[in-house]
Amino acid sequence: MARAPLLQLNDISLTFGGDPVFADLSLVVHEGDRVALVGRNGSGKSTLMKVMAGLVEPDTGNRILPPGMTVGYMEQDPDLSGFATLGDYATNALDPGEAWRVDAAAEGLKLRLDADPSEASGGERRRAALAKLLAEAPELMLLDEPTNHLDIEAIGWLEAQLKETRAGFILISHDRAFLNALTRATLWIDRGQVRRNEQGFAHFEEWRDKVWEEEDQYRHKLNRKIKAEARWAVEGISARRKRNQGRVRALGDLRAERAAMIRRQGTAAMALEEGSKSGKRVIEARGISKAFDGAVIFKPFDLRVLRGDRIAFVGPNGVGKTTLLNVLTGRLSPDTGDVRHGTNLEMAVFDQTRAALDPDATLWDSLTLDPSMAVSGASDQVMVRGQPRHVVGYLKDFLFDERQVRAPVRSLSGGEKARLLLARLMAKESNLLVLDEPTNDLDVETLDLLQDLLGDYPGTVLLVSHDRDFIDRVATTTVAMEGDGRATVYAGGWSDYRAQKAAPDPDPTTTTRPKPAPSPAPGKPASKAKSGLSYTEKHRLEELPQMIERLEAEIAKLEALLADPDLFSREPVKFRKATEALAERQKKLSTAEDEWLALEEKAEG
Fold it and tell me: For 516, which DSSP code?
């Protein structure tokens, strides 16, 4: 049975700043369509959606809506002026008897309807726009990154709502799990051309790669044909002139066709490089807790982070994931307990608030004026993993063009700001990456590359994310914070956590890795006998934590001594002895940590 069209675009062309965004674009959206709209950052996804919504007028072509058809667009930055509360904005177009729809959406999206728009965060404003759209229930919904600023619970609620709706919808999202669950067709914007595939996003990569393979084969054949015709043009000049001129014109046409073929944009040339290797024990947290104004963020909690771990922190917005991350990394002190860091930590941080970026600074200044990247005496160079690079060349690695390098940061899209932050992060050598919502606004190809880089990264990763697919692909351990003050550790990623959660809850103070405990105080029995160990091994296991702590303290003192830049010239003998002592203690520390881990694993059976 034929489905009725909801929206039709005919021969749409649009140009911004001299470059065509679309040319001769035609497409139809039908009743019941559930479409993923995908493409690289900057390819025109949001622009196309605004053309569909009637908010951007094309240069040529027309937009056709059947009589009485309603199209709703979720605004990225809604105009809330004139409204006393977010609820007033969201219910503005509804009859009083339909206001309950906004209440229902606000509950699922965790939106405070009584919030003052002037004090609302960007995430609250976007959620108000989403609640407004859902409540108005148009026949066609245009959703541009609806999961940004939603936690995993709210994403699950929205996913359930969209599965049940009879309306058609088009989705732009970086959340693979969300797109896989909801879409039945895919629109792909690639170099100004919009292609449609009657399969959901789950089949996008296979389809894209096939299209590119066919394109490469055609380009190869075209190049061979041009080469053959060019050889004829040189060697066959003795033929009749009329025939010659026809083939010469045909050769010119072939060359023009090749010149008109737009090269695909490559992936960002991102790279991570580990600095000096950290100790095996990266972070040891014992009995840590935190509360603000009487509200418990997390109860006493133990966590051990070992070199090479990839730990994801999940839970609702506002539950305290970033707070726990800040306590573990030493940026915030716990109320109880203590956090100890291992040796040689070199930390690099990706901040979800983009606070590290000055909106009024240019991209050029954002790199060259960063003290950690500045090259002394060179205003056009940045230090990238110990090597100077020209700032424009380095920005090109992250898919910025020369016209953007002098533009202000505020002019960038969300995805471009994320890439700029990654450029700063990846210029530094590190062995501990702290990533707070790194996936927001990134396109699929950049997400794939980031995932691969984290997989090959020899250091340690602490990750806060609401992207279920990304967590599954990256995390080896998941710390779940569910709003009751508990932080519970599960082995594996998001899917593993959900499967284990169905089983009886583990002890909230137990981690997936053993933790070294100090020897019992004199006169007190050990809290638990270790099975599988000889008497000598048990005694050794009790001694090792104190030995590790002593070695770490000695290493810290030696590193502080060697940090004196004049020590070598002032006291060369002392410098040499301190250097040798540092290497010796680092070797002993590594051996002690290996021995302790082996004994703990044996003791745990």
Answer: -
**Lowest mean pLDDT, pick from 33-42, 428-437, 499-508:** 499-508
Tokens standing for 412? 């960038």
Strand, coil or helix: 490: strand
Q: Which of 304, 287, 301, 288 is nearest to 516 (CA)?
A: 304
Residue 233 has pLDDT above 80, yes or no: no
Range 177-184 contact pairs with CB under 8 angstroms and sequence separation of 24 or more: 177/467, 177/468, 177/469, 178/147, 179/36, 180/469, 182/34, 183/34, 183/35, 183/36, 184/33, 184/34, 184/35
Return the bridge partners of 345, or none: none
Residue 56 near residue 47, CB atoms below 8 Å: yes
Using DSSP, state whether 153 is helix, strand or coil: helix
**What's the confidence (pLDDT) of residue 521?**
37
Element (H, E) at 497: helix 494-501
**Mean local confidence (pLDDT), 533-556:** 82
pLDDT band (50, 70, 90) for residue 548: confident
Asked whether 475 and 498 are in contact (CB, 8 A), the reply is no
Measured CA to CA, the distance from residue 43 to residue 440 in angstroms comes to 17
The band of 285, judged by pLDDT with boundaries at 50, 70 and 90, is very high
Q: What angle do CA 15, 17, 19 make, to 5 degrees?
A: 55
Taking the C-alpha atoms of residue 305 and residue 462, their distance in angstroms, rounded to an integer, is 9
Contact yes or no for 123/440 (Cβ under 8 A): no
- Chain-centroid distance of CA 172 in Å reads 15
pLDDT digits 0-9 by tens, 350-402: 876 666 788 889 999 888 888 777 777 667 888 887 788 888 988 888 878 88
Q: What is the pLDDT of residues 552-585, one digit of tens each?
A: 888 888 888 887 778 888 888 888 888 888 888 8
Helix ranges (H only) for 318-463 are: 321-328, 363-368, 391-397, 414-426, 444-456
Give the Cα separation of 350 and 433 in Å (integer): 8
CA atoms within 13 A on the CB side of 438: 29
Q: Are strands 432-436 and 460-464 parallel, antiparallel or unpaired?
A: parallel
586 CB-near residues (< 8 Å, 6+ apart): 279, 343, 344, 555
DSSP state string for 38-93: E--TTSSHHHHHHHHHTSS--SEEEEE--TT--EEE--SS---TT-SSHHHHHTTT
CA distance 559 to 341: 15
